[in-house]
Amino acid sequence: xxxxxxxxxxxxxxxxxxxxxxxxxxxxxxxxxxxxxxxxxxxxxxxxxxxxxxxxxxxxxxxxxxxxxxxxxxxxxxxxxxxxxxxxxxxxxxxxxxxxxxxxxxxxxxxxxxxxxxxxxxxxxxxxxxxxxxxxxxxxxxxxxxxxxxxxxxxxxxxxxxxxxxxxxxxxxxxxxxxxxxxxxxxxxxxxxxxxxxxxxxxxxxxxxxxxxxxxxxxxxxxxxxxxxxxxxxxxxxxxxxxxxxxxxxxxxxxxxxxxxxxxxxxxxxxxxxxxxxxxxxxxxxxxxxxxxxxxxxxxxxxxxxxxxxxxxxxxxxxxxxxxxxxxxxxxxxxxxxxxxxxxxxxxxxxxxxxxxxxxxxxxxxxxxxxxxxxxxxxxxxxxxxxxxxxxxxxxxxxxxxxxxxxxxxxxxxxxxxxxxxxxxxxxxxxxxxxxxxxxxxxxxxxxxxxxxxxxxxxxxxxxxxxxxxxxxxxxxxxxxxxxxxxxxx
Amino acid sequence: xxxxxxxxxxxxxxxxxxxxxxxxxxxxxxxxxxxxxxxxxxxxxxxxxxxxxxxxxxxxxxxxxxxxxxxxxxxxxxxxxxxxxxxxxxxxxxxxxxxxxxxxxxxxxxxxxxxxxxxxxxxxxxxxxxxxxxxxxxxxxxxxxxxxxxxxxxxxxxxxxxxxxxxxxxxxxxxxxxxxxxxxxxxxxxxxxxxxxxxxxxxxxxxxxxxxxxxxxxxxxxxxxxxxxxxxxxxxxxxxxxxxxxxxxxxxxxxxxxxxxxxxxxxxxxxxxxxxxxxxxxxxxxxxxxxxxxxxxxxxxxxxxxxxxxxxxxxxxxxxxxxxxxxxxxx
Lengths: 490, 331
Description:
The structure holds two protein chains of two kinds. In chain A, 29% of the residues lie in helices and 22% in strands. By secondary structure, chain A is an alpha+beta fold.
């Protein structure tokens, strides 16, 4: 990858390694001039003495450590809890940009919920051929147990975390809808808490829109979805347990909302009513914010070998005695092949054009598209539809001939299991590097969307950073980090 | 409070109490072995094994190829090493600390950060000291580390954990374990030491001091009775003294008050039988006289206390942790 410095970038020792290429730079425009909304931040960074920046970085490090903000890395032995890597320089989003994102996400989540309701009930969209039946039925996340089942307020996806990218033109596009059990929101909130302490005056001067009310908004959303006749619902967070990589987040959310954090073994289902086992006896549970995948949540309804769930939970759900957020079977809406149809889905249910576009996607079940993909693998990214977290991918430009052959073979063997997209050069934002200088790194953006009696999107979200130079992988399990996202006032 | 959380708090606390008790038991007996004594090494360590209760898989193995003192020492070192470090033996100190940490880890969020740091620190210290081969130097560092570590943990528990239901559950674990292990210890001594009347005075004196020191009770005992050690006074003190924390009566009183507090917190309707059994044990000890106990059958008396401890444990589970759905719903 070429990394030629662009003329016009203000000369400053801190920017000695700063470079720009075709990718959109969040701080500098194409001419190398500072974008207006970054000026105050740039001024602060370049006027603070380096040792002061270091001191603030250290004190922020200490805060993360003290709060035990960690995640677990799979496949290692003891002591696998690590501090989530973060970057001290906030990513700025103008109010105007954000308003568009917010409208786009609202539109998308509304359409996806209508789609899920339709797919699990009348299936009009399938009957009219807007979405081919085989795309839905061949999806591993499609749950036929959900057919004809009534869901409170017809809300299937109550909590989503949609991944956005910024293309070379500066346009925000949707890379992935995460509508099963999206994680990372605790990092968004702790990042914010620490940034307020690290750059307080800058934060105030920018008039950053607040995100701290997320836990209350989540609680209100869950409450609005309680089964009928339960005006004072008992809400719990269901975690797979301490060995889950997001366990910290589960405990954190439970504590912030002031609700119990339960495991499957704490739940007892009797006469299709869910109870949790407490020292004061059984206590009825009305709403479960579950952070356990469909497959593992009820050994009677889904995978029989699961010990993470509670036997009979699905029946209690079917009987309408308990609400699960998200509902079962939502994974059909964030399937990577279904993704290609989301613009059509939006058009079909809302009769609107998508506000946020998709990334161009090739469906490998289509013979013509498959041939094109196989001939151009070195330019494309191939993803397995069922995988997440950056696993099971082929990044064409970085692949070897042997890997490409292997993927061709896999695609031919199971075309439904793969999709291909062009290799994207998504935007970079300034980051504080190890040596104290500032350099650009690739970022994405995951806003968190709540859907109950209304749609709530806290302004901002988790900006994930590929901390290694040139890297495009932002997943925390693979060396990514995060930074605070400041959505500026109107 | 979730039953699972209560369960983990209970066992965290019990395991730590057990680890500390076992550490003192080994430490004192290692010291006693240095003195000339008519108690054979084998009998001494058999006694230790009886006192730690479920010592499955642990035993006395004389080296068949050699005889005399060296072989005996080898046997002792191997046994002590297993009692300290062998994680495959439930009674070992390391297994207790690992068990405590594993339980605490499951409820990391319910205990204070300070408690977790102490326990985690102790865990890492032990992992460092655990070596493949037995060595006396390691033991000399290991045993005080355990005792100090548990004391520190209990200190931060009292100063950093809210004194609500969870704290009371931890007290239940601690004092039930203490009542159990002290009674077991007295039972062993009652059968082994006090009945062996033929031993010489000096040797007997050392054994009795040892018993008191295992219970950290030597100084407290002397303050009440001077250093005039008699069977009757020692039994009376360790069994019935209401003020010293390492006596059966103190432990049972504390256990009872903690159970009462939990009952108030939970307002459970099923606690009557538990409170009856705990209250009966408390009253038995409060009104007992050592003369009567000795005149009848002290071993049977102690066994009866153990039975009641077991009963209390089972009832705690039946009321708070593993109750059946039918009982819980039938209010």
